[in-house]
Write a structure and sequence with these properties.
CATH architecture: 3-Layer(aba) Sandwich
Number of strands: 5
Strand content: 5-15%
Number of helices: 7
CATH superfamily: 5'-nuclease
Largest sheet: 5 strands, parallel
Mean pLDDT: 95
Oligomer: single chain
Shape: globular
Length: 140
């Protein structure tokens, strides 16, 4: 199953943000063991670098980006993705771009803590705990 992750989930892991950290780490584990194919929008990588560079040294921030690139596939942000995201009635353009990038690569699910931001999505949207519960149920 192809899954695209919202930026907030990635930041939860990299900055160990409580109380979200543990669920987000479990999601990373599901990607690492191959239970899901995890994607990040290309813009998520640049946003994460920007945020990490404020919280960590530049060398540590780049090391974290390198790890992300080893774990996740990247959903490209093309002219078509940006243009189609403009036509959506999402309140946040970044969310619309992540949604459209996910659609372009055939993702079935968006994982986010901002369900309101993805209220108009036509992909399935799950909070981290909800998606982990779904995965466990499918394994049984």
């Amino acid at each position: 199953m192809k899954v695209i992750f919202d930026t907030n989930i990635i930041i939860d892991v990299l900055l160990a943000r409580e109380p979200f950290y543990h669920s987000a780490v479990q999601l990373f584990s599901e990607v690492l063991v191959g239970n899901v194919v995890g994607y990040l929008a290309a813009t998520t990588i640049t946003m994460v670098d920007y945020l990490l560079s404020k919280a960590l040294t530049p060398i540590k921030a780049k090391a974290e980006i390198k790890k992300l690139l080893q774990i996740f596939e990247i959903a490209p942000i093309t002219h078509g993705v940006l243009e189609s995201a403009l036509s959506l009635s999402f309140k946040d353009y970044e969310d619309a771009v992540i949604h459209q990038a996910g659609k372009m690569i055939g993702a079935e699910v968006i994982i986010t803590r901002d369900r309101v931001g993805f209220a108009k999505a036509n992909l399935s949207v799950y909070a981290p705990d909800e998606f982990l519960t779904l995965l466990r149920a499918n394994k049984e």
